[in-house]
Design brief:
The complex is a heterodimer.
Chain A lengths: L2 H7 L6 E5 L6 E7 L2 H4 L7 E9 L4 E9 L4 E5 L9 E9 L3 H5 L14 E5 L5 E5 L1 E3 L8 E8 L5 E9 L10 E7 L5 E6 L8 E5 H4 L3 H8 L1 E9 L5 E6 L4 E5 L2
Chain B lengths: L12 E6 L4 E7 L9 H12 L5 H12 L4 E9 L4 E10 L5 E5 H7 L7 E7 L14 E6 L4 E6 L16 E10 L4 E8 L14 E7 L2 E6 L8 E5 H4 L3 H4 L6 E9 L4 E8 L5 E5 L13
Antiparallel strand pairs in B: 1-6, 2-5, 2-7, 3-4, 3-6, 7-8, 9-14, 10-13, 10-15, 11-12, 11-14, 15-16
Helix pairs in contact in B: 1-2
Chain lengths: ~250, ~300
Amino acid sequence: MTLDELFTKYPSHALSTQYCTPPALAASRICFHNFYQQIFPDLQTPVCLLLLFFNEEGRQVAAFEKYVETADSVQIEVADAGYWGPGLVAVVAVPDFDLVRYSEGRIKLKKMVGTGFYIVWHDKVGHVDTMHEWMPVERGCLPERTHYMVFDQAMGAIARHGLVFVNPIAHKHGTLQANITCYTPDRKTLGKTSLDPVSPMGSRLVFLNDLFAEFEGWLSRHQHVGVKVSGCNLVEPLTVELHRSGDFHIHHIN
Amino acid sequence: MLDRTLWKSWEPKAVFPLFTEARTWIDFIAQDSVRCQSVKEFVRPIYYLWQRKKSLPQVIRDYISTVFRKPMRLRGIALDRKGHYIGQWQLGEIRHPGDFISVEINRLAENEGMKLGDGVFILLASWGQNDMWSSSPGSATVRYVGDGFIGGYRTGLFARPLNPIHGKKHFGFTGLNPQIVIDDRLVASILLINHSSDPEYDRIVTPTIRLYRSPQEYLEEKFGEIHPHGALERSMTDLFPEAEQFLASTGGKGFTVAQAKGVSLASLHILRARGGISVGIDHSRPAFTNVIDYLG
């Protein structure tokens, strides 16, 4: 199953995405509850959960499907599903029942039905983090956008600060191009750079001290550093923080 | 019950837990939406007034903030886990996209001779966007940092009615958590917050929770009393002493369904490493909103 096949076969279903971390950082686990039973409590609501994996260059490298019975829940290690990461996973729960008929007289369906899920990033030692699903796959390009985020030194506890640029755009011209600016709390510019382009359905983890050699020094001096990211086909990136102990924290902005 | 003047119903807010073992940093950064960007956005408050989803005073406030470009002031209130008041602080103000505040909550308290333990922190903004719930133009970040771990999450601020003391009751809370794990490294827990848009809210809530290993097989317990404006975290092994054995056949994995009638609760999913070396935390997301067009 490919994205194009899914778009054609299930035109009213949106695919939510998440980032599968590099295995050297953490393994990724997708957690899904078949929530349709909560909407239609007296009916059978099995679904087929489809996972499509894309490497950092945006090439689909694996697909996986799992039948989830009414009211059941699954936890899927992405390595067991055929890909170790890093990259994007796109997820959709396709009802194995007539959703439109079930909905008649009960609920008004969204034009694009989405799929809620969670991801758990975990390593062998026990470091762990979690997040809900993130941006849906877009079929068209996005105009220029700007996003802002804050990094904090946390009294020296955080060793490295990074960003994951995710590009869930399934369009041949949907290459992500971004400019990154760091600034002080009183809005003085500390540094500027450009990100190498990220392909459609691609992703990239970058650490700010690799982009800006002085980044940790800026944090020591100012305690907090604002980061502005602007560009075309730019959805909200994820922030990554590595604790000196080896623990990690990954989260969306906005 | 809190002093009724502690906040106003139109002030967007978000509620975060505080943990004894972590120092807590909170930041907020304004996105481009801190400034009204279109005619459609400008007329929205009038539309919501016409739809009776916003009151006239709320709409007047929206336009005062929009037209006069008032700075967004942020402040925070700390409570203990039973919802008792501890202290409050002004956190700063923002005017333009990219402006930010970032504060360490523990240091604010320590500067006034207070020590924060397990508790709740309410972040409030003086105004929000011209949408139905006056949502914040950006999200607040909470970072929990300990000697050996970091965790946290981000969420927006909203001025929506939650567990109001007058008017229509909420239909109820259902929290689905498919991330449950109990193994040699991790133990899952759930933290529920009995929030309200009304400082005088005074209802104690006792949800029930089921731990499932299949749709037909479950354990059920009372989650415990959650005081108004308070919070309660319960680990799976604390709630269900036999949980480890119960989930042995599924490799320590399962899911929970927590429910409370007639009340809205905020729900956080937490994964704690044994030995305290890590914590993963995120707010839950209502699954229904992926399917049902509530606003259509």
